Amino acid sequence: MSDTRRRVKVYTLNEDRQWDDRGTGHVSSTFVERLKGISLLVRAESDGSLLLESKISPNTAYQKQQDTLIVWSEAENYDLALSFQEKAGCDEIWEKICQVQGKDPALEITQDPIDESEEERLEELPETSHLVELPPCELSRLEEMADLVTSVLSSPIRREKLALALMSEGYIKKLLGLFQVCEDLDNREGLHHLYEIVRGVLFLNKAALFEMMFSDDCIMDVVGCLEYDPALVQPKRHREFLTKTAKFKEVIPITDSELRQKIHQTYRVQYIQDIILPTPSVFEENFLSTLTSFIFFNKVEIVSMLQEDEKFLTEVFAQLTDEATEAIKRRELVNFFKEFCAFSQTLQPQNRDSFFKTLANLGILPALEIVMGMDDLQVRAAATDIFSYLVEFSPSMVREFVMQEPQQTDDDVLLINVVIKQMICDSDPELGGAVQLMGLLRTLIDPENMLAPINKTEKTEFLSFFYKYCMHVLTAPLLANTAQDKGSKDLLEGSTKINPVCPDNFQTAQLLALILELLTFCVEHHTYHIKTYIMNKDLLRRVLVLMNSKHTFLALCALRFMRRIIGLKDEYYNRYIIKGNLFEPVINALLDNGTRYNLLNSAIIELFEFIKVEDVKSLIAHIVDNFYKALESIEYVQTFKGLKGRYEQEKERQSQRLNRYRRDARSMDDDEEMWFNDDEDEEEGDAVEKSRTEDDFSDSYSKYMEAKKGAANGSNASNGANSTNGKAAAAPPAPPAAPPAVSSPAPSAKTSATPAPPLIKTVGLVDYPDDEDEDEEDEEEEPSPRKRPRLGS
């Protein structure tokens, strides 16, 4: 079993002066050859990796706080802290640090870094200079005391000595006694001096002094001293705010007196830091680092104490979900949980896991489902914040809960549907809440955070659930606002005949843009489910109606949705786009945009450039066949000429392929020709399906086949002996008499040889119908150039 005395949490102070959690491990002090000195090592308890390796430098100032913390700075802006599980472990490491530096372990700080000039100056001082003599605590000596406190702030060593003197003589309480006297006498000069003294003492940055100054019997006098800033004409009334305006609300009575005191203290100290003290200058930023740490660890203690009180949390949940609870009371309960979750962010990871699991076991998610559906905006906003903490902590936990709901309730009150409806109905003109909720939905449906190794079916099960129960709710506003293509322009111009919600209303346009952003994410990450949904709902056609919106950002969202679909290079999607002629609204938007060189213009051109560069043959053929006349005048980019060039290249390649695989009738034996002819019926009956195996031929291939058959009929008509057989070969397949008629040209094929050189004999891919007409082979000619442009790919 590991030694819990050496169990620590490693913290670093970030740029925002907040402590970041770096992990939990066990600390040791040992000689490190590479660093050439005794060092502190922290190895992670999870995998044994090295969390911290820090040499105990003789000149580094180490500080012990609250019996279980050791704090120090390794660089100018790099502060570290070790939080020990047990006081005994902290004392052991502290003694080791003091031993290396030759200091007394009874001190709470070893030393502060000082520059060479200060060292030289201190060496020149007499031996008695290490003592700081405090003036008597009298009204007449307040100015002298204020000057002393102000003068030591520039010297780390003198700050430390002054702090020791203040703690050893009980000087703080005497000063606060003088404050009451000065206030009774309305001695403004003395009060101004006391402001300078108390502010300077706070800047000494000593945890022991904070413990003393922020105790219940001192903190309000400290706040009182800070009211009398000499720069102000009239003093601030901070004490009045803290005692009368700020109300401490107990949603459930807290019986633990220590917990109540800790909550009061934390709120007041936070008020001092955020409201009373001026924003520190660049030179004072580190003066209050210990104050930040004091608040941070107080919050950790509060959350831990509340979490351990099971009766308290159980009662809170019972009242939150009770239908008889008054609206005001429920609002207070939700706000309590919001603050509770915010405080939990200070916990170490393993403790935070325990915290959220406790809330989950008590029923936080069913409770949120109730309160998020309420009419009270404040309650809904607070519930959204709580929900965001839960999703950030464990998306899988939320997904597991919502997948169990359909067995117990109907679709309308599913938690995710409640979230979607709240997003859709956000009353904020800027949709701030909707943006937050969209981000949470995106996290929940992101396959990247679905735990495949643990639960291999989570992705499949949840996405099936989402598309079955929730997707129709998400897309409802989009489908409602694009209800009819022919009426879409009137709708977009403000008509309410089709739907009372107008997508050219800015707020509605923003909402549709959010929905499209989420659907675009689905296209990228939910390959199968979203594809099925798009096809079933003809969703892309509905989305492209929004290309007519007067809001360019909404048109761009619709275009981005189509761009993601085409970017997948999925022929299933491509055939859907071609069949629905879905490039038309995009090209209309490009033409309507005219000569304006803007983001919409660039985005549309990039879409066609992608198709050209990636050589998406089916789309290129469709675009050139149907829209090239409208696009050929656009010459400021070479995109459309390039598409035409790709089209011509592919057409030429297909023509060469057809010629290459034509067969000489003389090289066929009877069995081989009969096999081809027997297969011809199936070939002609399902020509389009066969052609799709290569994805190189589109619908235009069937047109090509019809043209070929027409030419064959004409040729056979001029050849009297074989005209009947030619017609039979070109006719549509008819059961069961067709096979004998088709196979009958075999003897004639052998007798009608021509002097044409034999072509390569090989098994064809998709051009078997060419073999059916013996008269074409007799003509010794390549396909007419007039027929080549009919190829669609």
From TrEMBL:
<feature type="domain" description="PP4R3 EVH1-like">
    <location>
        <begin position="5"/>
        <end position="101"/>
    </location>
</feature>
<comment type="function">
    <text>Regulatory subunit of serine/threonine-protein phosphatase 4.</text>
</comment>
<dbReference type="InterPro" id="IPR011993">
    <property type="entry name" value="PH-like_dom_sf"/>
</dbReference>
<dbReference type="Pfam" id="PF04802">
    <property type="entry name" value="PP4R3"/>
</dbReference>
<feature type="region of interest" description="Disordered">
    <location>
        <begin position="648"/>
        <end position="793"/>
    </location>
</feature>
<feature type="compositionally biased region" description="Basic and acidic residues">
    <location>
        <begin position="648"/>
        <end position="668"/>
    </location>
</feature>
<dbReference type="InterPro" id="IPR055236">
    <property type="entry name" value="EVH1_PP4R3"/>
</dbReference>
<feature type="compositionally biased region" description="Acidic residues">
    <location>
        <begin position="768"/>
        <end position="782"/>
    </location>
</feature>
<dbReference type="Pfam" id="PF22972">
    <property type="entry name" value="EVH1_PP4R3"/>
</dbReference>
<protein>
    <recommendedName>
        <fullName>Serine/threonine-protein phosphatase 4 regulatory subunit 3</fullName>
    </recommendedName>
</protein>
<dbReference type="InterPro" id="IPR016024">
    <property type="entry name" value="ARM-type_fold"/>
</dbReference>
<feature type="compositionally biased region" description="Low complexity">
    <location>
        <begin position="710"/>
        <end position="731"/>
    </location>
</feature>
<dbReference type="InterPro" id="IPR051137">
    <property type="entry name" value="PP4R3-like"/>
</dbReference>
<comment type="similarity">
    <text>Belongs to the SMEK family.</text>
</comment>
<feature type="compositionally biased region" description="Low complexity">
    <location>
        <begin position="740"/>
        <end position="754"/>
    </location>
</feature>
<feature type="domain" description="Serine/threonine-protein phosphatase 4 regulatory subunit 3-like central">
    <location>
        <begin position="145"/>
        <end position="649"/>
    </location>
</feature>
<dbReference type="GO" id="GO:0005654">
    <property type="term" value="C:nucleoplasm"/>
</dbReference>
<dbReference type="GO" id="GO:0030289">
    <property type="term" value="C:protein phosphatase 4 complex"/>
</dbReference>
<feature type="compositionally biased region" description="Acidic residues">
    <location>
        <begin position="669"/>
        <end position="686"/>
    </location>
</feature>
<dbReference type="GO" id="GO:0006974">
    <property type="term" value="P:DNA damage response"/>
</dbReference>
<dbReference type="InterPro" id="IPR006887">
    <property type="entry name" value="P4R3-like_central_dom"/>
</dbReference>
<dbReference type="GO" id="GO:0072542">
    <property type="term" value="F:protein phosphatase activator activity"/>
</dbReference>
